[in-house]
Structure formats: structure tokens, C-alpha cells
Amino acid sequence: MLRELETDFETDREATVAGGADERTVGPPTRQPPAASAPPPAAANPGTDATASHSAGTPATSVAPAGSPRSAPPAGGTFAALRVPNYRRFMTGQIISMCGTWMQTIALGWLVLSLGASGTMLGVVTAAQFLPVLLVGAYGGLVADRANTRALLITTASLQATLAAVLGVLVITHVVALWMVVVFAALLGLTQAADNPARQSFVQEMVGPETLPNAVTLNSVTMNAARVVGPAIAGLLITLIGTGTCFLLNALSFAAVIVALIRLDRAALRPKPRLTKAPGQIREGFHYAVRTAGIRIPLMMMVITGTLAYEFQVTLPLVARETFHGTAATYSLLTGAMGAGAGAVVGGLLVARRRLTGVRSLVVIAAVFGVLILATAAAPSLPLVVGALVLTGAASVAFISTGNATVQLSSEPRMRGRVMALWSIAFIGTTPVGGPIAGTVAQALGARAGLVLAGVAALVSAAIGLASLRRADAARPVSAAARPTPSSG
Prior knowledge:
Pfam families: MFS_3. This protein is an all-alpha fold.
């Protein structure tokens, strides 16, 4: 079955809307934008696909067929998006900021454990951070559709910098308590509820729909490169100084993003059309996503993997401490391995060059992702776990990038902010449910059990995605030309 799918990797067509405006992009932890006002029609790929089918009466968005061949690499090759000056400036600031964010991620997990908390409590803190995304993430998408994206991103970056600075001071002055960490996580989650859909949709404002898949993947590669640098610095700082310095440096790193946003050439942006305030717009976005197969199926898959597979911030600290009796440096090594260049970066660059999108591609990648997580859980030694995590990181980049691009290219420009908010909810907002589950399983059955749960979840999502795709294919109307001609007489 996988072999059948592997020969059928697809690339979705860019969304085309008559007289439409910019497209937006979304995806897990990278910034991506809406399309420009009146983008050029996307090049048509042969055939139509269930991944983009809409119910009757819904404006059609062209997306490559589920079985369509891979498209040629985008103009400019693997690094096409970097030819855009605004994108280049933004990504420079983003790299610095993401290094700081990963430093904070490592420090936060280690701070919770150093305050005497259990694996379950670590899951609770993680849930507190992402619960706002689940509860108000849809409103964040609506704000992203209505607001000036650049101004909104400057605001959210400033708020996140302030929160990091405050927690850093509390830690350094030895005033911090566990309840303060929970409050910090919740406030951070509130800012991310608005920040995630806005920054994901902002990428398309910089590069346009033609280069969007490439930009989305390069964003993921950037995040994983930061995943190497940030944890490495954090492990060293925590060992030598303590966790407080990591929070302060993260606060400082947001200055790079803010400066980059201020220095963008606004005349070269492709600003999205502002959504006029009207009742029922959140409900409209949800219904649109449900009836569009190219959005619905990736969202279902991400809900499953986002809930139970992407809980590495819970399982990896426990693997480091409980399984290998390590320190913060061990935890940093494991986290960095998932973003190591040998796997994640190379895998991401391959996706960037091939522009893999579509549900079939996503199903295959999810299955590979699940197998690699299970291999990580079964690895008997620290070096083998590190090696398995490198490959797991590559599959993770491919899964996030492919799902992100598929959802965005299946969406109409006017719906993209709300659709991408649903993607963020599926990816990040499910953590309040999955975090405590993963933490409890790992605490009760061992840290490796949390990884087994993650691997099984990814495989289940692949199976559900495949079944849903086949149902969508079966429900697709047969064209008149393909119908058998009735016999005469």
C-alpha cells in the first residue's frame, strides 16, 4: 500500500480565485502570510483531486490531483524564497528569535523539573501554554484576517519578549514558584494564539503563492536549525549559570524579529485584503474547512499527531533524566538531535526542492514518521536514540511542511487566516490534551512508553488519512467523458 502511494507523490496546484486577493500561509511554528491582492492564476496541473474538492456551491480552489505527478522544482530551486529581499530579512530575524525560543523551551522544561515537579506536572505546564490556542485560537485566526499582519506581529513579539524577561528576572532572583511558571505559560499561550496564524500567513505576503511551498519548507528548516543551536546554548548556560539567563536571552532575541519587521520594504509586500467585520465568520471558516477535503484530511491527521505524537517537550526531558540519568545537557542533546542538519535540514531541503504537497504525500510521510518514532523508543543506547531522533526530525519537517502547504494551497485567500488558525489548533492547541496524557503515560510506564504512544499515533493518523482520501476519491463525481456510453437500441 505504501509502495502504491510512494509512486503517487503529488503536488497541489496553487489556489486560484477569480479576482482574488493575497493568499496566506500557515504552519506550525514558522511565520507565513496571506496572498497578494489579485495574485496571478496558478498554473494548472492535470486533473482534479479529492484533496481539493468542495461541496456544491462552494467556490472552487484548484489543487493538484491526489494522483498527480510531482511538479518540477520552483524557479530558483531549493532556495527560491531567499531571492525575495523581504523574506530574507524576515528569516534572518526569525533564525535569531527561534534560537532564543528553543533556549526558552529547554529552560522551561528543566525549570519545572528542578522545582520538584513530576512528569505529569510537566505535562500540565505544557498544557497551560497551549490551552489558550485551543480555546481562542479560532479568534486569533479571525484577528489575523482583519488586522495589519506586520503590525500585529510586532505587537505579539513585544509581548512575548516582555514575558520572557519577567520570568528570567524571577528565576535569577530566586523568587520563582511553580504557580508562576504555570501563569507564564498561560500568558505566553494567549499571545501565541494571535501570533501563530498571523506569522504563518505573513510568509505569503512576502513571497506570493508561487513560492509559498518553498518558503514554508525553508521556515521549517530554519526552525530545526535553531533547534540545534538553541538547545546547545541552553544546555551550556543551564549547566554553568542556570535557567534564568536563557529566558533573558530569549527576550533579547525578539529584538531581531521586531527590527526585521520594521525594516521590511512595505511597497514590496502583497498585503491581504482586510476582512470586514460580520457575524458568523468563525463558523463560516470551520464549515469551509470541513467540506474541503484538501483541508479536512490534513487537519484530521494533525489532530491525532498533534495530540499524541508532538509531545516531545514532555517525553524527551523524561528520557534524558529517567532513562539515561542525564542532565540538562543530555536533554539539549536529544532535542538538538531532532533538528540536526544530517537529518531534518537535509530532509527539509529535499521537500523544498520537490515541493511535495497533497494528502497522498502526507499519508506516506506520517507512516514513516511513526515508524521512526517507534525506532527511537526501541533504541537501547543514548547514541542510537540520538541517531534515530535525527531521522525522526527529518520526517517531522516533511510532515509539518507538507501538511502546511497542502492546507494553504487548498484554501481561498479570504479564508486562509481562519483555516490556518484551525491548523495551529490541531498542531499546537491539542497539546493541553496530549501533554498530560503523554506525561502520565511516561511517568507510569516509563519514558520510552511516551514515545511508543507517539509512534502509534502517527501510524493511526496515516491509516485514517488514507481511508479518508479513498472515500473522498470515491465520492468525486465522474466526468461526462469518463462515463460509459449507453448502448443503442
